[in-house]
Amino acid sequence: MVRGKQKEQAREKAQKLAENRAGGKSQLETRSKGLQMKCPVCKTPAANYKVIVQHMEAKHLKQTIPPESSF
């Protein structure tokens, strides 16, 4: 076997790369933790009050925007 050592090194390197990539593909939990507020009308999640205000102005024109203390 001429390439025995090289083949073994390549396999070890590929295995290390696969181990590094194995965890953390999904960020659903992290994302859901960041979206704490919800629109009182349609229950769309939002990150903060400013986003809620923008959403209400764009999507729910006839509804009054609740004060920040209600969240």
TrEMBL record:
Record keyword Cytoplasm present: yes
Name of the featured protein: Zinc finger protein
The UniProt record lists the keyword Cytoplasm: yes
Signal peptide, first to last residue: none
Region (Disordered): 1-32
Basic and acidic residues biased stretches: 1-19
Cellular component per GO, a single term: nucleus
PANTHER family, per the entry: GEO09665P1-RELATED, ZINC FINGER PROTEIN 706
InterPro entries linked to this entry: MBS1/2-like (IPR045230), SERF-like_N (IPR007513), ZNF706/At2g23090_sf (IPR026939)
Cellular compartment(s): Cytoplasm; Nucleus
UniProt keyword terms in alphabetical order: Cytoplasm, Nucleus
Species annotation: Gigaspora margarita
Gene3D superfamilies documented for this protein: At2g23090-like (4.10.1050.10)
Domain called Small EDRK-rich factor-like N-terminal: residue spans: 1-32
SUPFAM superfamilies: Expressed protein At2g23090/F21P24.15 (SSF118359)
